[in-house]
Amino acid sequence: MRRDMDPVRVYADGRICYWTGGVPGQGKRRIQRCGTLENAEAEATRLRAKLALMHGAQPEVFATVDAAFQAMLISMRKNKRPAGTISQYKSNWNVWVPELVGTTRCIDIELRHWSAIFDYAVQNAASKATVKSIARTVSAFTTWAVDHGYFVDAEPFGEPRRRRSIVKRAYNTAPSAGSDDVVTLNRCPSVADIQKFAAAFEEQYPGYGERLVLLALGTGLRINELLALRHDSIDLDTGVVAVTSQLDRSEPWPATVPPKGEKARVAFMWTATADVARSLIADSLKRPADDPHHGWLFPRYRSVTAWADRAGHLAGDATSNCDWQWTFHWLRHSYASYSLAPVQAGGFGLDLKSVSEWLGHSKTSITQDMYVARQADDVSRAYAATSTLPGL
């Protein structure tokens, strides 16, 4: 039996054989079919270069992919990345990255592992939006892991064009968003439901709970964006709301960070909730100038520092006490749904582009896919509306 120090052996029938440890007897023995001898030689050259890097490589390359991903999450938290982004990445990874991939060493990652992730997503009926979200998560992880020495190859999952092809195939195979994925008025809490929730929140947060709920409904802001509002954030004459920050969950109050997406925006407040905002502004300015809560619309309650988390607990208690079957975030969904729904359906009929920007969505397609549903009487209304040519 002949043995040399070549870590990759090439066979005339287009196969290659190699040890993942870089030398015979170390790691796992792999056999790969390349189709032709020419392809086998090219792949062998790539593998020899990769395996050569293992000698003297950083210990990170021998960590599992799961371990590398956990290290990325820790790094993101230390660098105060948005909590929502971290949560989304973690959820996507835990749900959609199969164990076969997660337990693989970083040094052994190949294109087939990328394919395994999206094959798993398709097999488990991931939606088109989910496929895109998975791709963003794995791509972000790949970039971070390459920069931090977990991969010896700049493209550990294979050539970018082939990766994009795999994602595109999974996206085209995934089911389109159905009616259950669209947040329509019939799925949102009614105004009566919201008023019950507001009353329950008032018991948990006296003097402010009801107004917090109503302002959430009238602006579509997230709870941490609401808690960061000050007396000069809202223009009562125009209804314009300057959303420049949100409370920082990782730092003591009143530390703030940029809103989700790390970009300030302008939102719009329904005129019907202007009186709520007016009363909150007046109350904030009545507090003494040396009061740390002076100017803040929603002062801390039952909290020394972690006001964002405490407000979330108060919302949970209010939910339990009034049999509210939604989350606080559904007030944002209600704002979007009522704003976009036609007047005939009980909404305000506002234009998609504006509402999308007020919500802070990066694309109008996000808003449309989530909130805009086809109306049952769309044909009859269109028939009546188009009886004459435009302008006549």
Protein architecture, described:
The protein is mainly alpha-helical. The protein folds into three domains: about 10-55, no CATH class; about 60-175, DNA polymerase, domain 1 (Orthogonal Bundle), CATH 1.10.150; about 185-340, Intergrase catalytic core (hpI Integrase, Chain A, Orthogonal Bundle), CATH 1.10.443.10. Helices cover about 50% and strands about 5% of the residues. The protein has 16 helices and eight strands. It has helices at about 35-55, 65-80, 85-95, 100, 110-125, 130-145, 160-175, 190-205, 210-220, 225, 275-285, 305-320, 330-340, 350-360, 365-370, 380-385, and strands spanning about 10, 15-20, 30-35, 235, 240-245, 245, 255, 265-270. It has a three-stranded antiparallel beta sheet with strand order 1-2-3, with helices on one face. Strand 6 (about 245) and strand 7 (about 255) form a beta hairpin. Helix 5 (about 110-125) runs parallel beside helix 7 (about 160-175), helix 8 packs across helix 12 and helix 9 (about 210-220) packs across helix 13 (about 330-340). The protein is elongated, with a radius of gyration of 27 Å. The protein starts with 7 loop residues before the first strand and ends in a 7-residue tail after the last helix. The model has no long low-confidence stretch (mean pLDDT about 85).
